[in-house]
């Protein structure tokens, strides 16, 4: 049995999802309407709509990111904005902060925001260290160092605005595309060493050089990250206990493992040697089942040779890496500047600069982070006031009005299929009313899964005809006539009138002639045409 009751296009769950999207100030109601119309054009309607399907459509239209979509579907409607920035997705996480890709609300420029975690925001010591990191970052301005642009606070949250690097770190580069050639690795090391020269000359020691802190941009440029954290010399988890380990066990210098505060430029050189070893072999220099075992090997184990795993590695590179990883700091190159000079003198590799530009580079999405959005929301979700616009928008009951859907012309949806004529829909019988597949209104439409679908209604003039749910184009106005055309029509009209009058006169004359055949003395009717345009009646 068919019902004439109106069937809503969006169920309650989907409408609630729409409310969350609008409350989050991510997508406007008109943009949502356009996506709904587009989905309906693809055959999505009635009970086929769901929050997940609408979210997929919004992501496909580049109105939401995957991370935003997952948060909204999980019931979140806050935590998408920070100051003048809209958060797009997480890029990384550490003890000193969570890094998000964000876009400036006005300038639409993409930046990386390093946000101090919520628990750290309640610790004055960690707040002071975070500010010191920002000040240290501001001192560094180099082509191979991730630049910090601003430090700000919004809703009680502290964050550093940094340069966004479109690419990925060298750890992922090796994991994804394999080990580097000798020339590629030398290019990466020269760029990194140039950044260290710049930092060391300003008294800044990195203390955590490793592949994951070296970003490879799409044009082959290396960018060293976390320089500010290195300057203040605190551990990544914010613990300032004396002799607390700062660095990563697989790449840390022996003296730094004993006392992080004693690290100097040569400690960065050791870590850079371990990083170079990894780029060429895909392995860390020392292995072990525990952190303690790996730290002990950095102290006592023999320095491994790259040539044992890469027979094609030039001896000069293998020897330099071995020297950089010397157990005693005094046996290493004395400074980053000296190391840079040695790298540039390596025989046969003077043209290595730019080798990384030919290496494939993906985007900076870290799937491990992107797929687990819950770990990034605690610091930005539940503290701080609501944005005023969003709060007022959500405070009042809101009706989702889809009765006036946007015109299909704006969406580029075809009016009819190939070979169809205006006013008809594919497969429709001749003379039948055209189908109107889009919209939301009362009335029943085609059945889906045995249920009648609502037939859409459009706010259009009643005189308009429709083809495939769209008003036909208005009839073209008559073409404007030229003066010569008007003159020709006047001449033809005059001739036509003359002929008509002549015919009338002939008929009348015949009639009179028949009635007065015997009276020859009576008036005779003669007709002539003056220049073919006049009729003259003459009496005898």
Automatic annotation (TrEMBL):
Transferase: is it a keyword of this entry? yes
Q: Where is this region: Disordered?
A: 350-387, 409-483
In the UniProt record, does the keyword Transcription regulation occur?
A: no
* Gene that this sequence comes from: prkC_4
Task: Name the UniProt key words of this record, in alphabetical order.
Answer: ATP-binding, Kinase, Membrane, Nucleotide-binding, Transferase, Transmembrane, Transmembrane helix
What start-end ranges are recorded for coiled-coil regions in this protein?
none
Q: Where does this protein come from, organism-wise?
A: Stieleria bergensis
State the name under which the record lists this protein: Serine/threonine-protein kinase PrkC
Q: Where is the Protein kinase domain?
A: 85-346
The UniProt entry, under InterPro entries, shows: Kinase-like_dom_sf, Prot_kinase_dom, Protein_kinase_ATP_BS, Ser/Thr_kinase_AS
Q: What EC class is this?
A: transferase
Q: For binding ATP, which residues are annotated in this chain's numbering?
A: 114
Per the UniProt record, one Pfam family is Pkinase
Composition bias (Polar residues) maps to 452-465
List where the protein spans the membrane.
491-513
**For bias kind Low complexity, which ranges apply?**
367-383, 410-441
**Molecular function terms in GO for this entry?**
ATP binding; protein serine/threonine kinase activity
The EC number(s) this enzyme carries: 2.7.11.1
